[in-house]
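STRUCTURE:
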């Protein structure tokens, strides 16, 4: 298996109602030590200004060269992305940009180790039967894959405990309980995900709520099975998140998450809890595409107008076979 961090620059959120479409996070963070902004989408274009680590830029066009095929520079694959920084507008290479929160997995192969202030690990406390988030130290290690005769860079931690997943960010997160997603799962399933199929209604529990917010959140899946080649084939599969506003006794807000998934067939909920400490659910969905297992991190605190959740990061495991 091979793992790599995927960009989310081409992701778009659409809705089931006549609401305006929402796009990837408008603000992205420079995760390199320094990054040149150029006046054209190519490596030899004139430098407009130089950005520093942690600078926040506004996304204007995720694939500004219109090739949508990307290119490799210094061993990194990405796109020339049009951004704005203060009064400057220009183009930067996308692997050196990150979202406010980035999803990683321990021992996963990464293409680029982002320069961020904080790394946090999410751990399962088998005694309390809850998940906790706390600061961790991370580092990379070169590992030679003898089967495929190539060197890989893997993300490791200094913790004896295995993480469920890892968040890289410049934000300060409080060490605390963030959920009890694993509590009601049979031991044999841990740490497997909860599978999602048409007709499912999955309640997104937040056991750590500290406010009087009593809104109820669910994932709802729809789709149809058709008989082809003597086997049931799923078609038109969609995943929605809903919010029932209990305080106002109003009808649910509904957001279709499916357009984020591209060619990936989402089939499971990998995690539900409150990562960003806003008393609203955050989730990680899992999907399969040809030769890859893809993880999608959605956060409530990053949601835009008419949204419940916003896709902020993806991570993929690739099969090299």
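SEQUENCE:
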């Amino acid at each position: 298996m091979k793992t790599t961090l995927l960009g989310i620059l081409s992701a778009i959120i659409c809705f089931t109602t006549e609401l305006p479409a929402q796009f990837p996070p408008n603000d992205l963070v420079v995760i390199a030590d320094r990054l040149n902004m150029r006046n054209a989408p190519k490596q030899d274009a004139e430098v407009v200004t130089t950005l520093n680590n942690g600078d926040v830029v506004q996304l204007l066009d995720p694939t500004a060269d219109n090739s949508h095929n990307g290119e490799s520079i210094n061993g990194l694959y990405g796109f020339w992305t049009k951004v704005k920084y203060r009064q400057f507008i220009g183009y930067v290479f996308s692997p050196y940009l990150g979202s406010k929160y980035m999803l990683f997995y321990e021992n996963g192969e990464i293409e680029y180790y982002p320069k961020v202030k904080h790394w946090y690990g999410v751990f399962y406390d088998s005694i309390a039967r809850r998940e906790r988030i706390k600061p961790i130290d991370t580092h990379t290690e070169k590992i030679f894959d003898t089967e495929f005769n190539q060197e890989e860079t893997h993300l490791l931690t200094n913790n004896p405990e295995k993480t469920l997943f890892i968040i890289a960010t410049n934000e300060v997160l409080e060490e605390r309980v963030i959920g009890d997603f694993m509590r009601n799962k049979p031991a044999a399933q841990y740490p497997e995900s909860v599978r999602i199929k048409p007709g499912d209604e999955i309640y997104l529990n937040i056991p750590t709520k500290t406010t009087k917010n009593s809104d109820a959140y669910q994932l709802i899946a729809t789709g149809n099975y058709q008989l082809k080649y003597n086997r049931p084939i799923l078609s038109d599969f969609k995943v929605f998140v809903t919010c029932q506003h209990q305080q106002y006794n109003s009808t649910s807000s509904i957001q279709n998450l499916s357009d984020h998934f591209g060619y990936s067939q989402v089939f499971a909920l990998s995690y539900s809890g409150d990562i960003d400490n806003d008393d609203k659910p955050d989730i990680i969905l899992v999907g399969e595409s040809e030769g890859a297992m893809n993880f999608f991190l959605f956060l409530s605190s990053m949601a835009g107008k008419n949204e419940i959740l916003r896709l902020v990061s993806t991570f993929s495991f690739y099969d090299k076979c």
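REMARK: The first strand starts at residue 2 and ends at 6.
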